[in-house]
Amino acid sequence: MAAHEATVDSVRDRETGVEQDHLDQVYRRLEEKIREAEFLMADAARRGQVGTPGALAERDAQVFRAGLHLNRLNSEFEDFLFGRIDLLEGKDGERGPDGAFTSVEPADGAVRTGEDGRTYAEIAETLHIGRIGVLDADYTPLVIDWRAPAAAPFYRATPVDPGRVVRRRVIRSKGRKVLGVEDDLLRPEMTATLGGEELAVVGDGALMAALGRARSHTMRDIVSSIQAEQDKVIRAPAASVTEVGGGPGTGKTAVALHRAAYLLYQDRRRYAGGILVVSPTPLLVAYTEGVLPSLGEEGQVAIRALGSLVDGAEATVYDEPAVARVKGSARMQAVLRRAARGALEPARPDSPPGGRRGRTGGQLSFDDPEAGPDGAEPAETAQPAGPVTGRLRVVAFGARVELGPQELREIRRTALGATTPVNLLRPRARRLLLDALWAKSGAAGRHSGDPELAAEAREAFDEDISGEPGFHAFLDAWWPELTPRGVLGAMADERRLGRWARRVLQPGEVRRLARSLKRLGPDGRGPLSVHDVALLDELQTLLGTPSRPRKRELDPLEQLTGLEEVTTFADRSARRRPDRAVEERAEYAHVIVDEAQDLAPMQWRMVGRRGRHATWTVVGDPAQSSWSDPEEAAGARDEALGSRPRRRFTLTVNYRNPAEVAEVAAKVLALAMPGMEPPEAVRSTGLVPRFAVAGGDLGAAVRAEARRLLAEVDGTVGVVVAMDRREEARAWLAGLGERVVALGSLEAKGLEYDATLVVSPAGIADESPAGLRVLYVALTRATQRLTVLSAKRDAPDADGVPDLLRE
Ligand SMILES: Nc1ncnc2c1ncn2[C@@H]1O[C@H](COP(=O)(O)OP(=O)(O)OP(=O)(O)O)[C@@H](O)[C@H]1O
Asked: The UvrD-like helicase ATP-binding domain covers which part of the protein (predicted)?
């Protein structure tokens, strides 16, 4: 036995040494490339001193390329090299651009059958797979980029369909040191030789080793162990819409992120238009945002939480479920459309119209246009008259001309008759006012016989009136520039909101919505919820932004030399905003939606606007949806994705939860979505979930159980409570260290922990109509251990199993 172990160890050491030699060779080559890049930089600097425009432009281009190259080479990734495949001879002898042979099928004579009936073959090609491709000086591939076609067999080959792959090896390394190797034999029946020696096989299960590893608060890439069904999604063609379904832990998020890196590799030029990854929560953004840099991709991908999609807005609060249901509903479109127009009118006679930007109006030479007894629209004219009354008076051609409330109302109605965004209608409104004043002045009649004279007189009239400060002040107050936040703030007035929501929302819904929007304050600047952000985006579209002349401040040196046309890579990098690698774009070339099942209709509209001309990858699991009206959301999703053809994939294996945890979660799935099959858990740990019951002091019980879990696992512990218990739970866990976090049920989405403590399942299930699905999410976060802690309302049995989780 001891002798056998010694042999295994020596094979392992020898094979580790083989890979160490290869990695050393790779680093020698990388060092050469770094020296080349540095030389290019220095050379470019010399050219810069020559100073002719041609030399400067050339310098810039060279510095840009060399800088990019250096950046990539200098970042020493963990697991830079992570894979190797040993291949049979291919059918045709052609090499691809990465230097590897292209054929997938073995050549006819690649495998011999011996007299003993066994099969034999010689390995014809060995490829190493890593995060970026490296060619030797003679163009032989030292490392193949994981996204290159030649790397696909590393992920795709299975014993049933091995193609040319005989042995697949996962190499573990740190910096420049190879730590170990793990092999899979794809043709175990075959005796294969490499350089005359029989192919060695080391270890079993690189995937299992990866899955068993302790978790931290950031997600790792899965580049060395992507599974075949996942690889198909990652490499699916970019065109139109790719939809990916699959239960918890099947790798949907991981696959979506790897797909972003793959698409950039495939067609960098096309995706220079940017890739947007939309995540439901900032916590999930923080958890996932390190994955792309670890794959060597940063610049073109923006990962944004739903509450951070609108420039300048950041959601910091949650709405209670009943309010969220109203704000997220597609019905809000109609309410916002009316609010965007209705907010032009003052709420009260002594206050400016809702949401106006800028000036206060000062001494206005006009009267409140909405006052007067003859309102054709009683709802909008219900404002009592006040210090500002409803008339516009100007002096033209020495005579007073006046427009009364009814005329002004007519003019506004005509101006609003166009579908153009409200703020962009101001010039039209101004023109209509001038038309009306002109007509009323009677001047048109005086020149009726001479159109040329009439046109001249009209021009002079317009100039006169427009030049009057009183006319400007009137226009500013009567048709102010509205802001989305301002309109949202105006909707906090229940009476006005009631008018705008008539026949769309129920009175109870209006009351709840207005109450919630009070948080924004009268100017709309208060804290926003995730759902408010989608409303702001809708309003932005309805209101529009009038164009303003842009001032660009020129560096005095630039003015002298015209040098602003020539910048270096370093200049541009320095100008980049430090907090956001990618400038906020209005639209993207590809949009990836993670946890798509959670998007409310208004959020789909917001995301849809960012991908009107994009290709899409949409990943999600309906069984985990926290949105209460899936049908309404499906309609909005269809609208956002349009008529593009769809390609659908389903991931079937749960890589996160051990079978013991998955079994408990499946009980809730059966209640939440009867008939839906859970994904199959890939491993089992023998660690049965614990059921505990809290006595009188729930906080003490949570703290004690969290302590116990912290002692049992090396990594993280997530404590999931109902949303309204979040603050309390944070206090319960105070001082227990950074490995443990308290999460509201909606915040647990997409995350995972070594151990999870789910507190009062019934409390979570009763939170909203989607509560059971939210509970299913909570129960599927653990990679090793799960404890369910019941309170009285959970009606636990003698074993502590709550009512919801019993057979
Ligand atoms: N091929 C793989 N190799 C190693 N780990 C994997 C693999 N596929 C998935 N995992 C791991 O499984 C866990 C779950 O993956 P991920 O979060 O992407 O799943 P998900 O389908 O998005 O889950 P959920 O629907 O619950 O959010 C992660 O830790 C991920 O790294």
From this structure: 225-658
545 is in an annotated binding site: no
126 annotated ligand-binding residue: no
Q: Which residues contact 620 (CB under 8 A, 6 or more apart)?
A: 244, 245, 252, 593, 594, 595, 596, 597, 598
129: helix, coil or strand? strand
Residue 548 CB contacts under 8 Å (≥ 6 apart), including other chains: none
Ligand 1 pocket test, pick from 211, 213, 682 with the greatest ligand atom count within 8 Å of Cβ, gives 211
Residue to probe by mutation, ligand 1, list 221, 655, 676, 781, most atoms within 8 Å of CB? 655
What is the Cα–Cα distance from 80 to 511, expressed in whole angstroms?
Answer: 57
According to DSSP, the residues that pair with 303 across neighbouring strands are 277
Tally of CB atoms within 10 A around 692: 17
Whose alpha carbon is nearest atom 29 of ligand 1? 656
CA of 220 to the centre of ligand 1 (A): 10
Q: Cα–Cα distance between 175 and 379 in angstroms, integer?
A: 71
End-to-end, the C-alpha distance of the chain in Å comes to 46
Taking only the tens place, the pLDDT of each residue in 506-532 is 999 999 999 999 999 878 889 999 999
What's the pLDDT score for residue 575?
37
Instruction: Determine, yes or no, domain membership for 697.
Output: yes
CB 300 within 8 A of CB 327: no
Which CATH number characterizes residue 788's domain? 3.40.50.300
Tens-digit pLDDT profile for residues 632-667 = 999 999 999 998 999 999 999 999 999 999 999 999
Domain boundary among 443, 463, 478: 478
Which of 253, 231, 216, 192 is closest to 83 using CA atoms? 231
Which stretches of the chain score pLDDT less than 50?
1, 349-352, 354-389, 551-583
Answer for the pair 546, 540: CB distance below 8 angstroms, yes or no. no
Residue 233 CA to ligand 1 centre (angstroms): 14
Query: Ligand 1 site: residues with CB under 6 angstroms?
Result: 207, 210-211, 220, 222, 225-227, 230, 246, 248-254, 621, 624, 655-656, 750, 752, 780
Query: Does 668 reside within a domain?
Result: yes
Enclosing domain of residue 86: 9-202
412 in a domain, yes or no? yes
Residue closest via CA to ligand 1's atom 3 equals: 225
Q: Write the burial class of residue 419 (CB in 10 Å: 0-12 exposed, 13-18 middle, 19+ buried).
A: exposed
By the 8 A CB rule, do 682 and 211 touch? yes
User: How many domains does one find in the chain?
Assistant: 3
Single residue among 184, 202, 220 that ends a domain in this structure: 202
Burial of 95 (0-12, 13-18, 19+ CB in 10 A): middle
Residue 231 resides in a domain: no
Buried b (16+ CB within 10 A) or exposed e, 25-41: ebbebbeebbeebeebb
The whole-angstrom separation of Cα 351 and Cα 421 is 23
Q: Is 248 annotated as a binding residue?
A: yes
User: Which one of 252, 257, 291, 683 would you pick to mutate in the ligand 1 pocket, going by the greatest count of ligand atoms within 8 A of its CB?
Assistant: 252
- Protein residue closest via CA to atom 15 of ligand 1: 251
Indicate which atom in ligand 1 lies nearest the CA of residue 619.
22
Q: Give the C-alpha separation, 679 to 441, whole Å.
A: 78
Q: What is the pTM (predicted TM-score) of this model?
A: 0.79
